C-alpha cells in the first residue's frame, strides 16, 4: 500500500540554525506514530512542516499523493491538528467555534450540525455547547480543541503534546476518541514527552535528536518499555538536554 | 557580495572626482542668473543643483528598497535584505537633505523655511515612511522574520509615495514648475541653457554615484558584522 | 469569498457580543473630539473657523480610534493560536485578509456613526449633505482599514506592537487623510458631490491599489 505521508530529504533552517537536517519518513495509512526527543530536537518543526504550517527549506512532502508545495490547500483538507494551543476563540461558544472551523473547511451546513453534535458528545461537552469558551476550564478547552481538529473528518491527525493540560477525565476522553478513530483508519502522528501513554497508544516509535531521526521501530519489535527507555537514553546526549530527558519519566 | 574591495575603492575614487567637478561647476562654471527684467539674481539658486539631484537620488534609493523587498519575498535570501536595509538608510539621509536644501532655498526665495508644497511635502512623508521602516526593523529580533516583515512594509511604503504626491498636489501647489517655468529666470537661460543642463547632469551623476558608493560600503559593513558574529559563534 | 464572509461574521459576532473594542473606540473618539472642542473653545462661535477645523478634528478622531481597534484586530487571533488554526484551514491567505478588512471596516463604521453626532453637538455644526458625507466616510475608512489591517497583521508579532502600529500607519494614510478632510470640508459647507469628484477619485484609487497590494502580500505577513 502506498504511504499516506512520504517526506523526502526535508530540511528546515531558521537563520543559521538547522532545525531539521535531513528527514526521510514514510507513514502508512492507519498507522499511529509517536515521536520523542529532547527539547530542540526538531519534533515540533517536523510536525509543522508535515501539517503545512511552515514550508521546508529543502525537500518535499507528499500527502495522499498530493504534492505539498504545489497544492497545500488540498493537503490541509486532509489533516487535523491538535496542539498545546487550543486554536479556539474565547468569545464564541463551543458550538460556534466548531461551526466556524467547519465552514472554513467548506462543510455543508446540515452535515456540519450533525457532526458537531456527534463530536461534542464524544468529548462530553454537549451540555456546555452554548457556553462561551472563555469560561471553560483548561481541560474542557483542550477537549473541545480535539473536537475542533476532527470536525472535517481528517485522514491524518497531528498531535503536538496533546496531554498538556489534560486532567484525568479529559485524558480518558481523549484516548477514547483516538481509539474510535482507528476504525476509520485515521493516521495519527503524535509528539509527546509521555512515553508510557504514547507506547500504549502508538504502534510505531520514532526518536529525533538534533534535527535527525535516530531511531524508528514498530512497537511490537520492542521487548518492553524498559528496553526502549534504555535505547532512548543511549541515543540522546544527556548533557545537551538533561532536563528534557528527565521529564520523560 | 557585489564588488571586491578593489573595485569598491575605484568607484569611491570616481565618485570623489565627479563630486568635486560637480561642486566646481555649481560655483564657478555656472553663469550668473538673470531674472526676467535683467537683474542679477542672488546666488541662492545654486542650491537647486544640489537639491534636485539629492531629491532624485532619495527617490531612487526608495525604489531600490522596493525592488529589493520584492526580491526578498520571492526568494528569501539574506542578500536582498541587506540591500534593502542599506538603501533605506542612505535614502533616509538623502530624504533629510532634500528637506534641508529645500528649506534653505525656500527661505531665500519665498521668505519661509517651510511651505506645504507637493514635492517638498511628499519628501517629508517619504522621510517619515522610511524612518518608520527603520523603526520596524529594530522592533523585530529574529533575522528571518525581520527581513520578511520589513520587505512587506518596504513594498507598501513605496506604493504610498505616488499617492501621497497626488493627494498633496490636490491640496496645494506653490513649487516652481521644473521646466519651462519662469522662476529660474528664463531670459537668463532657464534650464534650456547648455551650461545649466550640463551642470545639472554632472551633479545628478555625482549624487547617484555617491549613493551607490555609500550603499556598497553599507552592505560591506553589514557583511563584516555578520562575519564577526559568526566568529563569536564558532568560538563558543 | 464566502469564507471571507464567515471570518468577518465570526469577528463581528465576537465583537458585538462583548462590545469591548467598540466601546473603547467610541469613547476614545468622543474624547478626542471633546479635547479639541475644549482647546478651541473660544473659536467655536465663529462659523468660518469651525468649518475649517471640524473636518480635521473628525478625521483625527476616526484615525486615532481606528488605530486603537486595529492594534487589537490580530491580537485576538494570536490568543490561543487561532491564527495558526486558520492557516491550517484550506483557505486562501487573501481570504483571511479580506475577511478581516470587512469586519474591521464594519466596526469602524459603527464607531463613526456614533461619533459624528457628538461632533455636530460639540462644534455646533450642521450637515447638509448626509449622503455625500457618508460616501466620503465610507471611502476614507476603507482606505484607512485596508492598510491598517495589513499593518495590524504585520506588527502583531513585533515587540511593542501597540507602539509600532501607529508609527507605521500614520505616514501611509496621509494620502487618505488629505482628500478625506478636504472633501468633508467642502461637503459640509453646502458642497455638492460634483465639487469633490477629484477627492473621491483619489480615495477610490487609494482604496483599490491598497486592497490589491494588501491582498497580494498579506500571506507574507502571517508566515512563520
Identify the notable features of this structure and list them briefly.
heterotrimer; A: 249 residues; alpha/beta; Rossmann fold; six-stranded mixed sheet; four-stranded antiparallel sheet; 9 helices; 10 strands; globular; disordered C terminus; B: 236 residues; mainly alpha; Four Helix Bundle (Hemerythrin (Met), subunit A); 6 helices; ABC_transporter_ATP-binding (chain A); nucleotide-binding (chain A); Sodium ABC transporter ATP-binding protein (chain A); transport (chain A); ATP-binding (chain A)
Structure notes:
The complex is a heterotrimer of chains A (249), B (236) and C (224). With 249 residues, chain A is α/β, with parallel strands linked by helices. Chain A has one domain: P-loop containing nucleotide triphosphate hydrolases (Rossmann fold), CATH 3.40.50.300. Chain A is 37% helix and 26% strand. Chain A has helices spanning 43-50, 72-78, 94-104, 109-122, 138-150, 168-182, 195-201, 225-235, 242-246; strands spanning 3-14, 17-28, 32-36, 58-63, 66-67, 79-82, 156-160, 187-191, 204-209, 212-218. In chain A, the strands form two sheets. Chain A has a six-stranded mixed sheet with strand order 6-7-8-3-9-10, with helices on both faces. In chain A, strands 2-1-4-5 form a four-stranded antiparallel sheet, with helices on one face. In chain A, helix 3 (94-104) crosses helix 4. Chain A is globular, with a radius of gyration of 18 Å. Chain A starts with a strand and ends with a helix. The model of chain B is unreliable at 177-190 (pLDDT under 50). In chain B, 39% of the residues are buried. Chain B has one domain (5-30, 44-172, 192-235): Four Helix Bundle (Hemerythrin (Met), subunit A), CATH 1.20.120. Chain B has helices at residues 5-29, 48-74, 78-110, 118-139, 143-171, 194-235. Chain B is built from six helices and no strands. Chain B is an all-alpha fold. Chain B is 75% helix and 0% strand. With 224 residues, chain C is mainly alpha-helical. Chain C has one domain (2-221). Chain C is built from nine helices and no strands. In chain C, helix 2 runs antiparallel to helix 3 (47-73), helix 3 (47-73) packs antiparallel against helix 8 and helix 7 (130-155) runs parallel beside helix 9 (197-221). The longest helix of chain C is centred in the middle third of the chain and has 30 residues, at 93-122. Chain C is globular and about 60 Å long. Chains in contact: A-B, A-C, B-C. Chain B binds chain C through residues 73, 125, 128-129, 132, 135-136, 139-141, 145, 148-149, 151-153, 155-157, 159-160, 163-164, 166-168, 170-171, and chain C through 147, 150-151, 154-155, 157-160, 164, 167-168, 170-172, 174-176, 178-179, 182, 198-199, 202, 205-206, 209-210, 213-214, 217, 220-221, 223.
